[in-house]
Protein: Carcinoembryonic antigen-related cell adhesion molecule 1-like
Amino acid sequence: MRGYLLTVCLSVWMDSAHGIGVQLIPQYPVVNQSVTLSVTGVTGTIREFTWYKGSVAAAPNQIFNVTPSLNSTNGTQYFPQAKGFRNGSLQISGLVPSDRGNYVVQVQTGSVTQVTVFLPVYEPVTSSVISTNNKEPQENGKVTLTCSTNNAEKILWGKNGVSLPPGLILSADNKTLTFSSVSRSDTGQYRCEASNVASKIISDPYTLTVNYGPDNLKIISMNARKPLSLECSSDSFPSPTYGWKINGTISGI
Ligand SMILES: *[C@@H]1O[C@H](CO)[C@@H](O)[C@H](O)[C@H]1NC(C)=O
Ligand SMILES: *[C@@H]1O[C@H](CO)[C@@H](O)[C@H](O)[C@H]1NC(C)=O
Ligand SMILES: *[C@@H]1O[C@H](CO)[C@@H](O)[C@H](O)[C@H]1NC(C)=O
Ligand SMILES: *[C@@H]1O[C@H](CO)[C@@H](O)[C@H](O)[C@H]1NC(C)=O
Ligand SMILES: *[C@@H]1O[C@H](CO)[C@@H](O)[C@H](O)[C@H]1NC(C)=O
Ligand SMILES: *[C@@H]1O[C@H](CO)[C@@H](O)[C@H](O)[C@H]1NC(C)=O
Structure:
């Protein structure tokens, strides 16, 4: 009988101690935007709650203390971007990097419980732009494409709307894409996508055009009968210009 009562008391205490949590809305808060540190799992009516900036529920850390529908007091850590809701939640608007850190909320229903939460503040990825060391590359030359961006945790490259073909060299941070010996088949539209958990930016396309040739030069007889007509063709970019020689002398045909 005693053991049974003890178990019941223990489980009630466990519920109130472990029942509350704080959910960040949105999950990945971004500079200049707002976040709600939403208190979840409260059973019963909130009589009073207090938010602290820091890891310890101590008076010098207090942001505010609220007795819903009665009164509230601002603590020494109060700042005007902070707002309390009757359900115990804290909203911070116009986030700045220094808002990042631990917060403690203490909630009084029947008993007093508290929970600590870490608030991350993410910097959004800024514009991603592709630049190159070699604007008019010749085939077999070396070309690097660089994706310029800030605050990215991840950079992905694409060619003509799909992921890169194998065999290209990416730097460890993926910012630089190197063609050690560029080929005519590397011609195409490249983009880089820079992201972190909170944001993502895709660059404008960069068109890589590889100059090559002329090679694979051919002379084809177009007509076996008179008048004789010969056509010269080759693979080249930009398109080649053609000239003819007869017996080693430039012809003026
Ligand atoms: C945040 O707002 C300030 C002031 O409006 C602005 O200068 C800054 O660029 C903004 N930062 C971001 C990451 O949007
Ligand atoms: C508390 O109230 C705020 C503002 O109305 C809301 O955004 C938040 O989701 C509420 N939290 C819970 C747990 O209901
Ligand atoms: C808030 O109101 C309650 C009830 O009126 C009162 O007992 C308490 O002292 C007040 N707290 C502050 C900080 O004014
Ligand atoms: C806390 O500070 C804000 C901004 O100065 C003010 O509007 C509010 O009335 C203050 N609250 C209390 C209880 O003093
Ligand atoms: C680099 O790109 C590869 C795919 O090419 C990707 O799997 C990897 O996550 C990227 N790493 C970084 C740090 O962006
Ligand atoms: C080119 O050389 C051949 C052989 O020497 C000769 O028969 C022909 O007349 C020459 N043609 C011209 C246009 O010089």
